[in-house]
Each structure stands twice: as structure tokens, then as C-alpha cells.
């Protein structure tokens, strides 16, 4: 049963890739934009789609795998329903970011860099959002949040259902 | 209908500008979304158009609409340009940012836009390059290489196809000028790139923006489409990064655009000769390219008239971290570090004493207040063992643990290393381990005052030696030995790494060690301190 679903998935994925390359081109330099679009659409880039992508752009599977595993943004497993990216860089540290790091892990119930077991939330480090005078900062499902303190963290936790 | 101006900058939105704008729109105002003025202590800022000009109020919340509109709000700032933070600036590059609607072509043209491109089109390519050379403009990304000489190399390179690449992978913590410019005045960058294309004969350009800047990506894409007819036949596209800091290094960025892992290339060949897809390529930082329209429109002499020594023109300095008046402050080179941190920045936000500032992002040196006399100048900072980098200044108060910051610099390098060269890939991880051993030696603060500075190394011996299972007996885990090892490692990284990531990580590490030895477990007595200048 699951094998049939996987084959259907693969066919759907191949069709999606074909559609994307038809619109944006199948040159090698489209690899990163293609993978980013795929991740926006499917949430992650599963290992089993690597050969499909490689064929579409006429490059080796190793080339695709190398790129997927190099960039921090690209995910090989699905993230939680909500993604909280917390800045760990120097400017946020200068404004008490380390304490917020610890508090966030505690309150959201998930270690930095991990997805909670129930799949509700992923907590990830990010190194600078360019909001360096108003930290500590985070991106909550893509929305910027500044001057995070315990109260702001509580609001984030409620928002992501933690 | 009352017209009000509210920023749409990512920082303003993070502080609630969207809700404020919505509240004013619901109250029947004509809301114009601008870029940010650049002083975050007064954000969300609302400017109300009156017969006496724009009157600013900030910070304001969505519940303050009535008080702002009748002029009774307590945070009335008056003319924002007259505030000391703005009145003392020299805004060449950021002249329009915060004032105009970033995506309005009419606003851009009305505020002096496209004049530089018009001038460039009336000149020969060589004359354009000569003007940039005469302005003394140096690469604002950090390296400070003369922009005109880079362009000359590309102009002289024979090739059928050339490219303009804008490095907008502004990954350094404490910097946000590129982001603010792209969100607040995108046509300025587009005009700068079109001038560069005219100068060297390029047909297509890429703007590589980091994915952590979603607002900038959106704004630039819309702006490129809206202005396509004005820069034609030159064409442009945005490429979004994918979270790799090292792609801010120019050759890694080129590989990333080509669809590869963002790994650093060995130089030579220079990108100016063999760059993107092997073709001659101008690769410049956002601020370098955005300075060009002013140079062409206002004249190279006007730009070069400002500055200090061999650093000509203005620098958009970014005051960040634990600073009271954080934001963007564009000023000619030569202002001292102390003026920037204490006079302009107003000291720390926490009201505690400033202990250290890091200039130039994660690869920049930490300076103590005793070095605040340094003028903001490429050469002066290099001579002091640091760098200006992208001109971000991150302020720390006296609660900072400098050994922890040194460890973080190594940790960051380990996370972000592209893996191509050994000193960076392996050295950064070894650096974290050495810092852990040094920090394990530190005595609690109470013992520093009363007793000897060091614990006997045997107390930590078993754990430390376990890390060296191959030859435990040969490893000296004493503080002195580990400090020496750290310096030795930094030396290897500095001179052995392919690019600035591994090569400059020693700057924060060694500057922390040199200027703040007491945080590394060294005895506080001055005759043991390894440098003459110790933080007070």
C-alpha cells in the first residue's frame, strides 16, 4: 500500500518538476531555485526525489545531494506545523539572547535545532535577521518579532499552540 | 484627507508598524509606506504631513491614532530631520530612505533618481570607470578594494558576455544597511547596477539576497519588474540564498548562483576575469553599487571631498546590539569609534558601562573603550588589529563574558565553514575545544580577588585528557599551554585559510584574548597581561 503511494508521489513529484522546469528552464543554475520552490510547495526535499531532480536538470544525483545537504535552509525531513527561528548572533546575544534561547527551548518544549515530538513546532537557530538594534529577534512562521522577552515568548508559545 | 507616512521596513514591522499603518488607514488617512528613517528607538514612527512639513511621532501604537492626528501625543518629535541623530549625518547613499515610497517610480525620479544613469549614458564606458576611480570609492562589503579598479579590470577583459553581481548576502551580525537600502530605496541599487553594466559592457545582473531577508527579496523583485523599461537592455534577477553565511564570500556566492554548493574558489583567477559561468564579472556589495548613482550625478569630487585619509566618501555605520540609539548613521570616514558609540549611540541600552564593541560582524575584532579614539578608517582599523568590515558596531555592556564570545566566534565558524580548506573546517572545531578547556580553568569571580589565578591543572586533567585518547600523557592542558595553542591555531587559520571566514575568525578570538585577558582566566595583575592596553 505504502509502496503504491510512494510511486504515486513520485509521479506527482516528477510532473511537478517537469512543470517547474518548463516555466523556469532546466539549466544547472536553476537547481537552488528549483529546490527552494519544491520546499515551499512540499515542505521539505525528500531523499527519494533527488534522482528526479537530477534527471530534470541533467546533472548527477551527487550534485543534487551535495546541494541539498550544504544549505542550512533546505530540509530533508518535514518541519513542525510552526517554525520559530531564533537569532543566536552576537547582536542579539548582547541584548540577552542566550537567556531567551534557553527559555524558548524550555517553554516550547523542544531543543534548539529540533522538532517537537507531536510535530507542533520546530525551533531553529538563525544567524542574524538584520534587526540588530532591537533584539533578541525571531522569525515566527516568517513573521519578524523583535525585543523578545519572557512575555513576548509566552505570546509566541500560545500562537504556535505550545 | 490627512497623509501619513509609516515605514514598511522589516525592523519597523517587527516593532508593530503594520498594525499602526492599518489603524491610520481605518481612521481614513492616506497611508504611505516608506523605508525606515533608521533610528529604531523612535519606531514605529508616524510622520503626518502638515503645512509646516512632516511632523513625526514615535514610538506610537495603533491605539494612538487620535492623539497623533490632533497633535497632542506625548512622543511628538517635530521635524525628524532636525533631530540630532539625523541632523549630523551626511546622507549620500541613504538620502531617500525613509522619505519616499520605495516602489514609487515617480517618487524616485522626483528625488533625484536616474540622474546618475543618465549621466553615465552620456559618457563613454571608460569615463564612467574613471569617475568611480576618482571618487575613491572602496568596496563597502569589507575588503575595501577600490571599486573603480575592479571595474577597469572587467572593462578591459575581452569577452562576449559579462555579468554584474550584487552581493546582498549581508550575513554579519550587527549589520543591516544592505537590507534597509533594498527595502527603502531599491531603485538606487538598480540604478547603480545599471551604471556598472554601462561601464563594463554587461548585459545581465544578479542580486543575491539572503533568505533571512524576505522583505528585501520581495521589494527588489517588484522593483526590478517596475523599472525594467528604464534600465533596458540591461536585465536583472534576484537569487535567494539558502542560509549559508559563507555565500557572502564572493567566489562562494558565484558558485551558489551557478547551482552548486556555496564553496569558496581559490584565487586567482579573479572574478573580474573569470567570474560567474567563467565570464568577467563585477561583484560588488549593495552599498558600493548604491553609492555609484550619487557619484555620477553629484560628481566624483563631491563624493571624494568627504572622508579621511584613503577612505573617501561616506559610510553607512550601523549601531547595533546593546546600544541606546541603535540604527543607521551615514557619515564621512574619520569619525571616532567613541563618538559613534557614546555620542551618537548614547551608550548602552541597559545603562550599564560599555565593556566592548565588535566592529565588522562575526569576523571583526572586539575593542575596549580604551581604543575608542580610533578614527573610522580602513587603514586605522587594520593597524589596530581589526577591520571595519561592513561597518556594523555591536555594543556589549559589562555583563559580557569575552571568553564566551571568543568561543562563539569559533563555534560560528565551525557551523558556517564551507569545508573546502582544512584550517577553517577543522581548526574552528579544535578552537571550540580549546576554548572549552580554557574556560574550564577559570576560577569563580570571588576567588579572583583573593587567591591565585589558576587552579591546578590536575583537577581538570581526567576530562581534558579523555579528549586526547591517542596520547593523553603528551598533552599539556594547563592554561598557559592552551592559550599558546589557541594563538598558534589562530595563526594557522589566519594565514592558511582560503577566505575571510577561516582567515578572520582569529580577529574576534585574539582581540578578546588580548584586550580582556581576565576573562580567559589570566591573572588580573598588569605585568602578566600580554598587551599594553588593558580594558579598565
TrEMBL record, chain A:
Highest rank taxon of the organism: Bacteria
InterPro entries (alphabetical): NADP_DH_HndA-like (IPR028431), NuoE-like (IPR002023), NuoE_N (IPR041921), Thioredoxin-like_sf (IPR036249)
Keywords annotated in UniProt: 2Fe-2S, Iron, Iron-sulfur, Metal-binding
Position of the signal peptide: none
Binding site for [2Fe-2S] cluster: 87, 92, 128, 132
Cofactor dependency: [2Fe-2S] cluster
Protein's UniProt name: Formate dehydrogenase subunit gamma
Recorded coiled-coil stretches: none
Matching PROSITE patterns: COMPLEX1_24K
Cofactor note: Binds 1 [2Fe-2S] cluster.
SUPFAM superfamilies found in the cross-reference section: Thioredoxin-like (SSF52833)
Segments passing through the bilayer: none
One of the record's GO molecular function terms: metal ion binding
Family in the record: Belongs to the complex I 24 kDa subunit family.
UniProtKB/TrEMBL annotation, chain B:
Domain of life of the source: Bacteria
Protein name, per record: Formate dehydrogenase iron-sulfur subunit
MF (Gene Ontology): 4 iron, 4 sulfur cluster binding; FMN binding; metal ion binding; NADH dehydrogenase (ubiquinone) activity
Source organism: Sphingobium fontiphilum
Key words of the record: 4Fe-4S, Iron, Iron-sulfur, Metal-binding
Gene3D superfamilies membership: 3.10.20.600, 6.10.250.1450, NADH-ubiquinone oxidoreductase 51kDa subunit, NADH-ubiquinone oxidoreductase 51kDa subunit, iron-sulphur binding domain
One Pfam family here: Complex1_51K
Similarity comment: Belongs to the complex I 51 kDa subunit family.
UniProt key word 4Fe-4S: yes
Presence of keyword Metal-binding: yes
Cofactor annotation: FMN
Coiled coil: none
Span of domain NADH-ubiquinone oxidoreductase 51kDa subunit iron-sulphur binding: 403-448
